Amino acid sequence: MNFDEFQNRARLYVIGALENGESQEFARARARFGQKAEDFIIECYQLHEAFALSLRPAKSSEALKERLMKMVRERKKSDGNTE
Amino acid sequence: MPRRPKLPADLDPEESGPRLPAVSPPLEPGEPTDLELMQGIQQEDPEALSQLYDRYNGIIKALILRVVHNEAEADDLLQEIFMELWNQAKNFSAQKGKPLGWMVTLARRRAIDGLRKKQAYMRAGERLQNETEQQPDAWVHNATEEEINFTDTRMLIRKVINGLPLAQQQAIDLAFFHGMSQREIAANTNTPLGTVKTRLELGLKKIYDGLKELKDEL
Fold first, then answer.
1. Domain B132-218 grouped into CATH 1.20.120.1460
2. What does pTM read for this prediction?
3. Which CATH class is domain B31-118?
């Protein structure tokens, strides 16, 4: 697999669309290309951001945020008590 | 005259070189960057999580809804994802990507897991055919400040995606938003496996290249 082919596979990899056989071959190429491969894969994850940002934001209730923040504060308090 | 998005504060154009441009929405002067908020969360500051939630809950919920198609489940997952973000913040590394990318990856995985548990994805292909290019009406609401901030970015990204042939858009949609494998996409769309693979590869490359070109527009 040359690096162009690796790039094609990397874009499939980050969206979880590699088939089993391809995954093994991809893993071998990833190890062979080393840091260059890792840098490219990190870059490909920006596709995730782009797909998410292509959507129209959906509305959530204030109550949901209040519940979340209450859980977070309780977790922080409980973690503080156990330390 | 439409407002043109600014580069995010945490993107140094001199450092970006040939890489993909950051696709995050612009920040107002003085607003903390996503990375600063993540660092605040890592230091267990609830206010940092509150701000990150305000900035991205709409986007993350839209992503979850695109996968699970159920408002109540989406709300539950949204809460779980931000709780997981709080609990797992120490695992975030800026060297491995940006906070939004990390959040989206986390949210997508959670949403697809939820979808698979219900096995509702079996009907995803049929559902997709019923969807329009835009979001279903149920997702549309009066523009909030958050949405206005995202609009320019969204329009630019949509332009890139909409430039793809429909078959490529569909293959990517089924893979990314429904977690389908190439074989599942082939089965759901009555398309040869090799064609699905080609559509995914070509479509993703075009989006990747299109995002690079967006850098000039940004």
1. no
2. 0.78
3. mainly alpha
